[in-house]
Amino acid sequence: MRVMGVDPGLTRCGLSVVESGRGRSVVALDVDVVRTPSDTALPQRLLAISDVVDYWMDTHRPDVIAIERVFSQHNVSTVMGTAQAGGVIALAAARRGIDVHFHTPSEVKAAVTGNGAADKAQVTEMVTRILTLQAKPTPADAADALALAICHCWRAPTLARMAAAEALAAQQRRAYRAKLAAKTAQAKAAQAGARR
């Protein structure tokens, strides 16, 4: 499975592509950070991110996109910029029919380090070890993008099993409701026949 990990942001947007192998083996194929100047108008910044993401998706052809879910932050403008960048990327994936999954920062940290409250240095260290990189990926946005892709590779089998279980449960609920409705209709018909 080829996963494109994205750490969205307006000023710095981390992009990575990894490929999962057998078990928990993951190989890094590419990593970069898209930068947009803060003095540039928002539409142009989003367009710049979109252009690079389009190129990456067309070049690397990922099977799935893993994007960091915007979680609570104190700076509203940062949250908005992160959400807008993430939206541009999700839209580009949807246009290509590529599945998109969102992971919270704590899910990513827990998957990569075993600690949902790990700091950036710990995440970078573990990403370097997991991918057996010669040097630590910099800046932190690059490491975060790789961590997102790793997280999705490792969580994908569980997510697939959960989706299958939820689909089966929904199917069983529908079957039960249909059976219940049929019994209710049968009972009402029997009552109506008894009154005659």
UniProtKB/TrEMBL annotation:
It holds the Pfam family RuvC. Keywords: Cytoplasm, DNA damage, DNA recombination, DNA repair, DNA-binding, Endonuclease, Hydrolase, Magnesium, Metal-binding, Nuclease. The keyword Signal does not apply. Gene3D superfamilies: Ribonuclease H-like superfamily/Ribonuclease H. GO terms for biological process: DNA recombination; DNA repair. It comes from the Bacteria. Its cofactor is Mg(2+). GO terms for molecular function: crossover junction DNA endonuclease activity; DNA binding; magnesium ion binding. Its EC number is 3.1.21.10. Transmembrane segments: none annotated. Mg(2+) 2 binds at residue 68. InterPro entries: RNaseH-like_sf, RNaseH_sf, X-over_junc_endoDNase_Mg_BS, X-over_junc_endoDNase_RuvC. Binds 2 Mg(2+) ion per subunit. It is found in: Cytoplasm. Mg(2+) 1 binds at residues 7, 141. It catalyses: Endonucleolytic cleavage at a junction such as a reciprocal single-stranded crossover between two homologous DNA duplexes (Holliday junction). The RuvA-RuvB-RuvC complex processes Holliday junction (HJ) DNA during genetic recombination and DNA repair. Endonuclease that resolves HJ intermediates. Cleaves cruciform DNA by making single-stranded nicks across the HJ at symmetrical positions within the homologous arms, yielding a 5'-phosphate and a 3'-hydroxyl group; requires a central core of homology in the junction. The consensus cleavage sequence is 5'-(A/T)TT(C/G)-3'. Cleavage occurs on the 3'-side of the TT dinucleotide at the point of strand exchange. This is Crossover junction endodeoxyribonuclease RuvC. It comes from Mycobacterium sherrisii. The gene is ruvC.
